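Long-time lurker, finally posting.

We've been working with Urea ABC transporter, permease protein UrtB (Halococcoides cellulosivorans) and I want a structural starting point before designing mutants. I don't trust myself to interpret raw outputs, so I'm hoping someone here can both generate the structure tokens and explain anything notable. Sequence follows.
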Amino acid sequence: MGRGSRTAAVGLLGIVLAGVPTVSGALVQRGSSGGPASILQRALGLPGRALDAVVGLLDAFVQFLDAAGLLGPLYQAFNLALQFLNDFAFIVLAAVGLAVIFGIMGVINLAHGEFIMVGAYGTTLTANAGAPLPVAMIAGVLAAAGIGFVVERVIVSGAVPNWIAQKTIGRPVIEPLYDRLFDSMVATWGVSLVMIEGGRIVFGDSLPSIGTPLGSIHYGAFSTSMYGVVLAGASVAVVAGMYVLFTRTAWGRRARATIQDEPMARSLGVDTDRTYMTTFAVGSGLAGLTGALYAPTLSIGPGLGSQFLVEAFVAVVVGGTSVILGTLLGGGVLAAISATVDNLTGNSFFGRIALLVVAILVLRFLPTGVSGLVESVRERRGVNES
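Top reply, 14 upvotes:
Generated this for you. Predicted structure of Urea ABC transporter, permease protein UrtB:
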């Protein structure tokens, strides 16, 4: 069996098993301790001869696909699937914190990108100080959630200024920004400017990057980062975690009650002020998680949050106000469109243009978003069944 056939067979086996057919661009024979064949041998527990037999069968299969002209389309389909996963992870992680704050509080947070920046800064600074990457990511999330808590208490709800005013002049002076869309946009835009310039003054125009872990996957003429696959899994885990949080916890029940009818929830004893406070901290922490997860892939600077804003706001528009269903459906639809357009044109710019076109069409024909359409279909079915 030749080196080329062994390489192709091991590569295909690595793809099928979601392994790592090439790491950092190197394809190595089975006898090398770091090669894909030795990795598969250890993972599957196969002796050398059994692995040779498996690779031989795969080699014949690869040659058949190549002779039939199917190997190229197979690689292209696999590349499209990976592009979809990368886009889905980026859109969902970028949008979920924004969707939580907007869906529950009715606040359009234009500082969302800057909370992503805080997560990335916290992760990078902690990692550069010598902490393991997972610990650094936790630090980034906590930093974003903590700043979000302060912003909510001081600016969004005005609780701290109102407490001071109540003690000094006997009356509150700030009206909360809940469900005041334009006012919240102006206020949070001001917060974003302060955070950007504050980051530039304190840390300068850039920070040393921490590097992308886990190497690359190479398949045919294509390659992608293995860390991108991890991000796709992280996006699914975040959505699943939010589902559990909203449906299985006391805070989730209070939050859903506040979304449906805030005055009624308050009259039934729900502390909506505390719910809003927690919501903004959770949404900011989710934005920080996005920055923490993407910190290894980014150039760290004060303006990095702007890279996420288009996808985040378009996903909220397309998905609708339903936090879980809207984020999931919006992310899926937009990722499919973006991956297809990127794959056809070879330029991500056209993918972003396609997302904006979709947002315009959804605003025109589905003002409640995809999740609103799903809910209306459910209601019609319920009426028909009754």
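Before you design anything, note these points.
The first strand starts at residue 216 and ends at 219.
The chain has two domains: 3-69, 86-306.
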